[in-house]
Amino acid sequence: MEIESEIAESESAHRCEEVSVLEQERSDLITTCTRDELLVIETVMKVGQSERGYRYHFNSDEIEIIHLPIELTGPELMQKYSYYLVHKTKQELAKRIEDNTIVSRLLKEGMEILKL
Questions:
Q1: Interval 55-59 mean pLDDT
Q2: Which of 35, 36, 79, 102 could disulfide-link to 90, CB 3.0 to 4.6 Å?
Q3: d(Cα 78, Cα 110) in Å, to the nearest integer?
Q4: In this structure, are residues 89 and 22 in contact, taking their beta carbons and an 8 Å threshold?
């Protein structure tokens, strides 16, 4: 999460070399995780992405989060969103996380929903 914040700051300041270094550091961090760690990260991200409603404002880049009631428990949510992910390899999970540009936001939202 810290690396994504640093990447965003560097991009806004147009420091391309620093962005490249930080993106490589983020990639290295993801690839050093075990398959089980990646599975948990991806599952929490999916909970954060899917258990809330989102309203996109097309006149701006603003995204409004609609706080819907959560009806399942934490373990039930983890089971629901990891159901198909358990068949993914470590490389597939790492690639999915690496390709996602809003990992921090989804993780924070997922952790809030799961009360972690």
A1: 70
A2: 35
A3: 10
A4: no
> Could you report how far apart the first and last alpha carbons of the chain are, in Å?
15
pLDDT digits (tens, 9 = 90+) for 59-87: 777 777 777 788 899 999 999 999 999 99
Are 101 and 44 contacting, i.e. CB atoms less than 8 angstroms apart?
no
Cα–Cα nearest to 26, from 63, 18, 73: 18
Helical spans, DSSP H, in the chain: 2-12, 16-31, 35-50, 74-82, 90-99, 103-114
Indicate the residue type of 113.
I
Q: pTM for the whole thing?
A: 0.79
CB 95 within 8 A of CB 80: no
> What is the C-alpha R_g of the chain?
15
**Mean pLDDT, residues 90-114 taken together:** 88
Q: Which amino acid is at 68?
A: L
Cβ-contact 78, 114 below 8 angstroms: yes
